[in-house]
Structures are given as C-alpha cells and as structure tokens.
Amino acid sequence: MGNEAAAAAQEHSGEIIHYLAQEVAPGIVIHMQTMYMTWITMAVVFVLFLLAAKNPKMVPSGVQNVMELFIDFLNDLMEGQLGIKGRKYMAPFIITLFMFIFISNEIGMLPQVGVHWTSPTNDVNTCFALSLTVAIGAHIVGMCQKGLSHYKHYISPSPAFLPLHLLDEVVKPLTMALRLFGNILAGEILLIVLYQLAPWVVPEFWVMFSLVIGFLQAFIFTMLALTSFALAFAHH
Description:
Blueprint: H1 2-13, E1 21-25, E2 28-31, H2 32-53, H3 62-107, H4 124-146, H5 162-197, H6 202-233
Antiparallel strand pairs: 1-2
C-alpha cells in the first residue's frame, strides 16, 4: 500500500493541471478541483450581480457600470439573433451563461499563490455540460414557443435533409465543448510552462493575451448558443 501511495503521489506531482480526481463510488469519479473552482466561479458571478443591483444609480459607476456594459452588449446580441421577444425571454439564461463562462475562463489566470487556481472550463466535463445544457434547452424553448412545429426545420427544404440536421444536432454540441475546452486548457498549460521557464515579464504578457482569449471564447460560445435558440423565435 505504501508503494502504491508513493507511486500515485509521484504521478500526481508530474501533472500540470490537477483535477484532484476522487472515486466516490465504483466507476464514479469526481474532479474535486473542478467542483471547487465551479463553486467559486458561481459565487463570484452572484456577488457581481448583487453588487451591481444593490443601490443602483442613474449614473452608474464601479461594478454597476461594468455589469451594465456587459448586459447592454449581450442585449444587443440577443436582439439581433432572437428579436425583441426572444431577448426578453432568454436574457436571464444567456447573460448568466456568458458571465459564468467568462469568469470561469479568467479565474485560471489568477496568480498561483498558495492556491491552485484553475478554470472550470479547462475540464472537458464542464464544457460538455454547458454545451448539452444549451442543446437540450434549445429543444425545450422551441417546444414551448412553437410546439411540434418547431421540428419542421428538420425536413426543410426537403425530407432528404433530415440526416444532415440530425448530424448537426450531435456535432454542434461536440464542437462547442471541444473548442472551449481546448483553448482554455492550452492557455493554462502554456502559462504554467512559461512561469517555469521564464518567470518574469513573458508570463505577464501571456496573461494579458489570455484574458482577451477568455472573453472571446465566452463570446463565441454565447453566439453559438444564440444560433441554437434562434430557431425557436424564427418566423416562417
């Protein structure tokens, strides 16, 4: 048992990204690091909205000003993709989705001082959960808005297109998850390597670049989510 523990510790010490995998039941493994960072991310998002909504001012400043910039930006995106009705219907979900992914992407850029900060989105399980939430949510919203007629697009413009539409239903969540996962994981690994090879100046430039990438990946994921929901509010 001692040798096995030592081997496991040695293997873990060689990892660049630590997921702290724990088997809670036979065949069921939970990445505890991902869970911890997900909880922290949710808490940060909640606090940001709480601070922005607490004692709002006609002339916003501080956190309220930043959050209103994000919300106005997302409202414009939603209105362009979903229309006014769709924006009002989907705003709570889309804004929360964007903010969660954005904070998740950026939290892994925090200095590794005493705490091993990682992005929840550097775990493929989180990314698949997000993409599946969007995919399933699009069907639920479509059914609520149009009933069974929501699925007419599967045989449009011809029933021969049905296999392609079904394939798209599988491929789109897969590509959404893998794009987000790959970009965030690669960025964090490179940052860790840069800190080991050149601990001054170079990593700081990469952090600034990664912050922009984190925003762009949240934006891309949100735009793809909007295209999924757009069918529910499209007028034929």
